[in-house]
Specification:
With about 180 residues, this protein is mainly β. Helices cover about 10% and strands about 60% of the residues.
Amino acid sequence: MKKIFFVVLFTFSTYLRAESKAQYRFEAATAPLAFLASWITVDLSYFYDSHWAFGPSIVRYNSDSTHGGMFLPTYNGNAFGAHALYTDNLLQDSYYLSFHAYSENYTSYQEAYLGHYDHQGTRANAVVGKRWVSLNYATMLGIGLENRNHNYTMVPDIGSKTDLSSNDTFLTIEFKMGLLF
């Protein structure tokens, strides 16, 4: 009797999970490794249909230091933008293609006591990868290209400001974790 009860319970819980999974229309995702650099990233996605998701993207560069780190610069500022995600099925494991576009405004500190850079510009990327969905969690891992088009001002501790610009394209790796609701 206990075996029958547990089989029925397991079957019913699986059915409930499948039914509730079909009801998910939103996802809130972040890049957990960005926390190591004191960045907070959030992608809020609306599931348009079973293949497409769209929404706003926000990045907060929130370093508490006004001096560069030992190996990497520190950043303070914001980026606001939008993203799109395409996959075979948003609620199942599958491969994906994602796009992000941002407008950025931040200050970077390269090395201790050597001044800083004030950045303004745009950033866009396209990434392909694998998306895993389990219960109400999603994980994405992908690789792609990113383009940054910035105007920036070099502000040394001593001396005059210098206005510069850059337009760089480079390889990017994406690792994101999200909550479906």
